[in-house]
Automatic annotation (TrEMBL):
Protein name from the UniProt record: Integrase catalytic domain-containing protein
Stored InterPro entries: RNaseH-like_sf
Superkingdom of origin: Eukaryota
Amino acid sequence: MPAHDGTQFFLFITDDATRYTWCARFSKKEDLYRTFKNLHKHIERTHNITIREYRMDGEFSGGP
């Protein structure tokens, strides 16, 4: 069921070292890559770091 703003999906990125979590919302599965890329850039820019590795749960590995 969509939220009041139309979003249906959430992307969570958690730093394993600090357990800090970022969240981004999006409306369609097709928006996942764009949302991920934007959040990745935001984290690197605001914290002046380079993200070297991601662990995924495989939710979107099969494609839309």
